[in-house]
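To the wet lab folks,

You asked to see what we're planning to order before we commit. Fair enough. Below is the target structure as tokens, and below that is the sequence we designed to fit it. If anything looks off to you, flag it before the synthesis order goes out.
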């Protein structure tokens, strides 16, 4: 991938063995997360990856599930999908901060190829707009980011 390539669309097909990927999703907003998962699935299928999907209760559980999956092993990379919609209390801020900090800590510590598709929005309409089957699908964007990280990991481990 050259620096002039669009990073979110640079990888269409992985070289080497098919990647084994785990999607960890928090389907509290099932329509939204389902749309993101469909967008991601199209990207990952085109890349020749095999994909397994697990559900967690909510966004807050994403970092712990990622940590458990890393301990178990067997996957080349991970895609996290979820959605948090702002409400009338501070709950939104605490959840978003905790999830982002938890995922970033694991990512920085392990260097695992990771795509992070957590929508943090003010309204459900905003989330739906970002999970449609079009170019703005944030699940597809997170899948492209994951593939880019996977290419980098394979290049540097060779």
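Sequence we intend to order:
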């Amino acid at each position: 991938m050259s620096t002039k390539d669009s990073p979110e669309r640079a990888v269409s097909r992985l070289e080497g063995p098919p990647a084994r990927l785990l999607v960890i999703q928090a389907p509290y907003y099932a329509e939204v997360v389902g749309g993101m998962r469909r967008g991601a699935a199209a990207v990952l299928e085109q890349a020749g990856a095999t994909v397994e999907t697990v559900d967690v209760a909510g966004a807050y559980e994403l970092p712990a599930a990622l940590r458990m999956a890393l301990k178990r092993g067997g996957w080349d990379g991970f895609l996290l999908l979820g959605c948090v919609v702002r409400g009338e209390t501070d709950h939104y801020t605490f959840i978003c901060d905790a999830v982002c900090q938890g995922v970033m800590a694991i990512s920085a510590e392990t260097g695992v190829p990771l795509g992070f598709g957590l929508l943090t929005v003010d309204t459900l309409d905003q989330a739906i707009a970002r999970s449609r089957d079009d170019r703005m699908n944030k699940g597809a964007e997170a899948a492209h980011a994951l593939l880019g990280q996977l290419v980098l990991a394979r290049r540097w481990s060779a």
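Structural context that might help your review: Strands lie at 20-25, 50-55, 77-85, 114-121. The radius of gyration is 15 Å.

Thanks,
Computational group
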